[in-house]
Amino acid sequence: MTERVAATPGLYPLPDWAKETLSDLKGHQKGDLLSGDESEAIVEEYADVRAEYVDDQLDAGLDRVVEGQGRWDDMIAHPLTVHDSVETGGIVRYYDNNNFYRDPRVVDDLDFSGDVARELERATDLIDGEAPLAATLPGPYSLAELATDEHYRDEAEFQAAIAEFLAGEVDAFPAHETLFLLEPSLVTNPPAEGEESAATDAIATVAAATDADVVVQTSYGALGEKLYAHLVDEAGADALGLDLVAGDRDDTVYNVQEFGATDSLALGLVDGQNTLVEEPETVAERVEWFESQIPAEGFDRTYLTPNTELFYLPTNKYRAKLNTLAAAAEVLD
Amino acid sequence: MVRTPEANREQFRPHDHANDAFLLTTVVGSYPKPKWLNRADELVDDPDSKFDASDLEEAHDDACRLITHEHERAGLDTVVDGEMRRNEMVEFFADRIDGYEFNGPVKVWGHNYFDKPSVVEEVEYDEPWLVDEFAFTSDVSERPVKVPITGPYTLGFWAFNEAYPSTEELVYDLADLVNEEVEKLVEAGARYIQIDEPALATTPEDHAIVGEALERIVSGIDEEVRIGLHVCYGDYSRIYPEINDYPIDEFDVELCNGDFEQIPTFTDPEFEPDLALGVVDAHTAEVEPVAEIKENIRQGLRVVPPEKLTISPDCGLKLLPRDIAYGKMENMVTAAREVEAEIDAGEIDVDNPLADD
Fold it and tell me: Which GO terms describe its biological process (chain B) (predicted)?
């Protein structure tokens, strides 16, 4: 019997009050964004933000609770942009969105940071055992794609260094039930033919650093079929996360029918980039429909997730989407 | 296909214009707001303040008068009120179009947010959007007034689409509403309309949608009305030569920011609409010297002859300090007038404009 798990990979929109207080404390310019050594006043604001995120998720009844990543000014590039061996360059476009992040220019060895682990420890304290924690990190392929290498000077070496860095970060995480590795670049800018294994090896390096369920979450459409097959077999993922909102859903169905699937699946079911709030029943039907496309006996788990991060939404709609996911999992129970 | 720019350009030549050559000078639209206006915008929301909506209207009127006159003082041939009444280029219109709703701000980058609206039902035309604004500005101005309008592609794609099966369909409905507004503006006396489509630069593969939207916008609009299209910060090789098919009189583009590297893109095949060329950078806080701007104007002559060249800043100037914005306009006009005189005197070879005389 497949366990249905309502969860999100985090990166939530800041509450409106925090949008104001934090921009007053930090400023609006490029140089004002988070560097990882923020003042006590800023730390306290983020503590309040984190507490609100945890409450939002517990109130909604999600099966996994994330830290919410309110500090991640540069979205999934955050673990690099706060790193001591990284200088931030110009503002660059974040995928195909009207959003921008600071270009992380890696200028020295990527040693241990601990920034994300510290966030997760604080989240763990707040959750206080009421739900299992899910950790979030960029996947190594996407993080390497988003960054500029000015140190390793070799694409393969750079990707491997990023994977080792992320694995080191995971190693310091507090207990977590699930680890989301966000890999939108696998869809938007996939590895060249023949280079797939370098990407999946890098992901496997990070996945091996935890005993938790590892979800490799993709976004912005369907994966190419060859890459999909590599990911299922080699990435060390317990679940591959598939976007069922954007792009051609039939391509994704074809991939799972043709090449099988990981033991668990994560389905991007609610639209993280549209304010239209889905009905839980509709989401539940989509889960059953997708599961029925695959001639297997069933999965260990199906994660019900948004197809992207939720920071694209205004806060009222982000909360509504959390509720939808939790309610959809309940419909299926 | 392009409209007939030669049928509407001469009306903007000032009666006392000193040169035979005429490089039409204009601005893209937005201009730094005086600090007191930002304060006034906030004050009206403060329940403890006696400052009310009619006070704010007076403040907006004062600011529009001030900035329109500032444009005139800089010597521009066509002026704008600096968009003093507008908050943001999508929000302002979404607020006036039935079918949009606002749920709150969303992140653009860092702590910069945008009140991205949602389209929750079919969009409909209610009250005029800009007719009062135009009537006021043309009343206080001695120069012809240009009206910038955010285009339907940007109004559609920079919103959440909850209601339409595709955003393309939303864009076409919005284009019909823009057409209705343009008709009303023309009725009120407007002769220079600029459609702003910054969203096209981020998704150039959608150029055909913008073309179809423009067809709807100009439907029934007389040839003496000048229709411009402003796009900024894009890779123009991906929309050229397709823009030669757009029903516009003028294509307004920011190229100063990229040191005119993209100029050759527009030289083959022959550029058909008039070119409105950005010759000062909207995002550097230094006023370019006249000599430098004159060199920039010559770049435009590589694409079109003087009678098809309009001179403009790269983009709206609203993010600059006000004195810098003014300095840029003033130097830009001086540079245009000097280039005109040099063309009249035969000192610039318009067939080989970069050559030293």
Answer: methionine biosynthetic process
